[in-house]
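Lab manual, section 2.4: Encoding a predicted structure.

Procedure: take the sequence of the chain (409 residues), apply the prediction step described in section 2.3, and record the output as structure tokens. A sample record is shown.
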Amino acid sequence: MEPNGNQTRNSADTSNVHIACVIPARGGSKGIRLKNIKILAGQPLISWALRAALDSKAFDSVWVSTEHPQIARISEEWGAKVHDRDPQYAQDKTLALDTMREFSQKHPEADYIMMLQCTSPCVHPWMLREPCRMIREEGYDSVFGVTRLHLFRWKELKKKGDKPVSENFDPIYRPRRQDWDGEICENGQFYLFHKKLLDEGVTQGGKIGYYEMDPKYSVDIDTDLDWQLAEQRIVKYGYFGKTTNYQNLKLAVFNIDGVITDNQIHVTAKGEEFRSFNCSDLEGLKLLKEAGVDVRLITGYDRNIVDFISERTGCVVEGNVQDKLGILTKWVNDLGLDWSQVTYMGNDASDVGAMRKVGLGGTPVDAFDEVRYAARYIGSKPGGRGAVRQFCDHILQILNKLGSDSASC
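Recorded output:
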């Protein structure tokens, strides 16, 4: 974190200034349709940045600037305020600077603005606290994120006859990576600046500082290939929030109807009803139990379903359940648990209350919109066809990640 030596414009006390975090998220992404709310590792892309910003407690307000109603709804569900962006500032050629200028004009209470990009999803709360501290305590006017890269650069050959020229190293004395400090490069993750800089058409000025991040956290998403790489990186290096106590997860509850089943009732020629189950889903429940998690199931149907599922899974199964949050509350109280130690997976409106209460609420991809809005994990598979296994694997991956992190400490 180094200033660039520019003269500071900010001689006043900055300890009580209003710092607003603004995540620009228009609905007209061309490379990947509605990219900002596409599901990445079980969550809308924008939620990764929102969760880190809100949990950092570094900002006086956290906003999403958008013109798209679905992005606005999802952002509000995750706890952000929504700035209703004028559509003229949501065009393909709109500059980020103009987007921030429009926000600043409509929210004069914000003295400083952090433009946080949701296409860089591996952000953690501590990465945001330090830049804000630099503003409040050290009088910086602007701070931005950087990453140290070890790349040898060559001058581009633009016409015939040009000769390659190295730009940042001597080929005769080519350094080893461990003998070279590398170069500091902007990673585009965030730009924090005083609003007056917008009048000059810049986000970096006055007393400038940077905040260096490990390259493993620098993920930028522009293409479908980037998306696949980002999902792998998120699982290993992403921030999964503080509302779920993964390290002490004790109870996982699944609604059988539409989650373990496909929400259909099949009828034979004789009028007998039957439903189907996915063996992979049942195996996921078994793996979760083997990891020490108490797995319980609920259904609105009668004893036949209860007895069959109980026998196949070895789980406690509660049938004829009308009040899902009620039975879940009873179990939490009986086991002496905190809600952060509980996960729940449902697919219908009657599940929303339970999903909002627990540390992590999950749902299949074919759930109703209201359920998807409430969920903090959305599988890519439908109910009865692998969604449960995905949710179980998601939890187990995080448990394994936390175990590995602890072992390496």
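Check your result against the sample. Confidence is low (pLDDT under 50) at residues 1-8.
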